[in-house]
Amino acid sequence: MDETVEDLINTLWKSDGGCYAKTEFLRVKILDYGFVEENMKRYVLLIIISFLLAACTSGKTEFFPSQGYSADAAEVTVIRERRMVGLGFSMKVLLDGDVIARLKAGQYVTFYVNPGVHKIGIPDQNIAAALERGRKHYFAITTDSSQFGFEIDGISERKAESWMTQSKPID
Q1: Domain extent at residue 104
Q2: Same structural domain for residues 45 and 76?
Q3: Nearest partner of 140 among 91, 98, 74, 99, judged by Cα
Q4: What CATH code is carried by the domain that includes residue 123?
Q5: pLDDT for 101-149, tens place per residue?
């Protein structure tokens, strides 16, 4: 039974190299060194799989703005830099304090909101931005040397378009 569970885990982890690298230590401890009794391995591995799948997913959440394009809306695009740092986990994108999406490295999301001042951010940091009617606004999530390791900032349309050609939109 453990062999089948281990094969499943290896298949899932290898599909996203970042998750595999971060959790290989746990797999070795649990499966190879027997730190968990034989009959408990299966349950511990299932818990780890659940955690990894949640940490490594990306996409829109239930709080994603449902407003589509209109001439009266402000268009906002948030792009996550494509870097090795943090490759294996998704970054939460916040709009006015609600998590609206999760981005992996090299992904972006575009949404429309009513004009006005909105907070665009990531955990532990946000920017109060005056979003104008009919205008495109671009923000980038990049790595930095802070304790958290990431920051969000506004970027030019030219830079955003360049990054977006190397990135993928989320569904």
Answers
A1: 59-169
A2: no
A3: 91
A4: 2.60.40
A5: 998 888 999 999 999 999 999 988 899 999 999 999 999 998 876 666 7
Q: How many domains does the chain have?
A: 2
Separation in Å, CA 58 to CA 16, 33, 55, 82: 12, 33, 9, 14
Does one domain contain both 119 and 135? yes
Between 2 and 103, the higher pLDDT residue = 103
Three-state DSSP state, 32 = helix
Predicted structure pTM score: 0.65
- pLDDT tens across 136-158, in order? 999 999 887 666 678 899 999 99
**β-bridge pairing 91-95 and 98-103:** antiparallel
Q: Is 13 helix (H, G, I), strand (E, B) or coil?
A: helix
Residues 65, 112 within the same domain: yes
CA angle 158–161–167, rounded 5-degree value: 145
* Distances from the Cα of 56 to the Cα of 38, 96, 112, 144, 159, angstroms: 28, 24, 26, 21, 27
Q: Which helix (H) or strand (E) holds 168?
A: strand 168-169
Are 18 and 90 within one domain? Answer: no
